[in-house]
Design a protein that fits this description.
Elements: H1 15-18, H2 20-24, E1 30-31, H3 43-55, H4 65-79, E2 88-91, H5 94-105, E3 111-114, H6 121-127, E4 132-135, E5 139-140, E6 146-147, H7 150-158, E7 162-168, H8 180-193, E8 196-200, H9 221-225, E9 227-231, H10 234-237, E10 245-248, H11 252-264, H12 272-284, H13 286-310, E11 324-328, H14 336-346, E12 349-350, E13 352-353, E14 364-368, H15 373-391
Parallel strand pairs: 1-12, 3-4, 3-7, 7-8, 8-9
Antiparallel strand pairs: 2-10, 5-6, 9-10, 11-14, 13-14
Family: Belongs to the class-II pyridoxal-phosphate-dependent aminotransferase family. MalY/PatB cystathionine beta-lyase subfamily.
Keywords: Aminotransferase, Lyase, Pyridoxal phosphate, Transferase
Protein name: cysteine-S-conjugate beta-lyase
């Protein structure tokens, strides 16, 4: 796969590229924000979709035995996690799944813990359902490393009102891959306080060596029985627009409850194209993914090295997973509003505002580096020119 191939995404109704004026208020900002990649999907995925299109009939579609086997085999070979095929429950996206889970397994007023700064929809699915948002703020050291504040987490989980924690694993936006020890401590706390664990593992395949993703449900029998694991091929293989995700729910009762909630909103039907693409991705996409990870890591190292040489005001900490950099702009001495305006108006760059991930994201920006080297070099050049101009004033 040639990850340097430039594909023009404009005029394709791309959220990332065609909606820049609506999102950022300018026409010429380079989009480095929403989490999809500028690369074509794996050839095997495209071929599978072509073959399915040639059939010509696109009626209601079920999860086939082959689909289930492909998902289970991927989990076993990629993550050393043996799952039963009946544990797999389709949903048209991880964010819809989170919303349905909050509705199905908690009541208004119940507390739901999230570890901030974190993916913005986590806030919405809690607040929109009238649940109490409980923040377990991650600790940040001077080197840019984030860790869990376990003392605060214990206090949050011990509240009688706390019924659920939504875990981001690997974490978006800080890029942490939680260790077995960290996950084990969290699991012990949730068992002790009888808290349900919803683990968003959508970035599980995008982990850089030597780090290893540990599926939460694989930790112990108790963890397996009290967790719902959210997975998807969307980030891994750049097929987010196909609206295909898979929840892995070992607990029979919880799986039935979730299925009933899906049925309530008529959301349980996969598209024939999504089914074909997902099965092909999990059967034949491993080599493509390995190449992608090497390319993405190179892009991240380029940003780190460029900033170290030209932009000392910006701290770049390489993440352990994802294709997203969590950049520390606090050295520029700007407040959140000023920083946003500076990047959009002066640097002509569209990134995700760190404040949208929570107040602890103030001064940070999330940058998507899943793009060609030429695009990334353009982005860093724009940033360098804008900061240099500020310095000369």
């Amino acid at each position: 796969m040639n990850f340097e191939l430039s594909i023009d995404r404009k005029r394709t109704s791309s959220l990332k590229w065609d909606h820049v004026p609506a999102i950022f208020g300018v026409e010429d900002a380079l989009p480095m924000w929403v989490a999809d990649m500028d690369f074509a999907a794996p050839p095997a995925v495209i071929e599978a979709m072509h073959k399915r299109l040639e059939h010509g009939v696109f009626g209601y579609t079920l999860l086939s035995p082959g689909y289930r086997e492909a998902v289970a085999s991927w989990m076993q070979h990629r993550h050393q996690w043996d799952i039963q095929q009946e544990w797999i429950q389709f949903c048209p996206g991880v964010v819809p799944a989170l919303s349905l889970i909050v509705e199905a397994f908690t009541e208004p007023g119940d507390g739901v813990v999230i570890q901030t700064p974190v993916y913005p929809p986590f806030y919405r699915v809690i607040k929109d359902h009238g649940r109490e948002l409980v923040e377990n703020v991650l600790k940040l050291d001077d080197e840019g490393n984030y860790t869990i504040d376990f003392e605060d987490l214990e206090a949050s989980l011990s509240s009688e009102r706390t019924k659920m924690i939504i875990l981001c694993s690997p974490h978006n936006p800080v890029g942490r891959v939680w260790t077995r020890e960290e996950l084990g401590r969290l699991a012990d706390m949730c068992q002790r306080h009888d808290v349900l664990v919803v683990s968003d593992e959508i970035h599980a395949d995008l982990v850089f060596e030597p780090n290893t993703h540990i599926p939460f449900a694989s930790l112990s029998d108790d963890a397996k029985q009290r967790s719902l694991i959210c997975t998807a091929p969307s980030k891994t293989f750049n097929i987010a627009g196909l609206n295909t995700a898979n929840l892995i729910i070992p607990n029979d009762s919880m799986r039935r409850t979730f299925a009933k909630t899906l049925e309530k909103y008529a959301l349980g039907s996969i598209t024939p194209i999504g089914a074909a693409a997902t099965e092909a991705a999990y059967r034949e996409g491993a080599d493509w993914l390995d190449g992608l990870l090497t390319f993405i890591r190179g892009n991240m190292e380029y940003v780190r090295d460029y900033a170290a040489e030209h932009l000392p005001e910006i701290k770049v900490h390489l993440p352990e997973a994802t294709y997203l950099l969590w950049l520390d702009f606090r050295g520029l001495g700007m407040d959140d509003k000023e920083l946003t305006q500076f990047l959009v108006k002066e640097a002509k760059l569209g990134m995700n505002n760190g404040a949208s991930f929570g107040t602890t994201g103030n001064g940070f920006m999330r940058m998507n580096v899943a793009c060609t080297s030429a695009t990334l070099q353009d982005a860093m050049s724009r940033l360098n020119q804008a900061i240099s101009a500020r310095r000369s004033v």
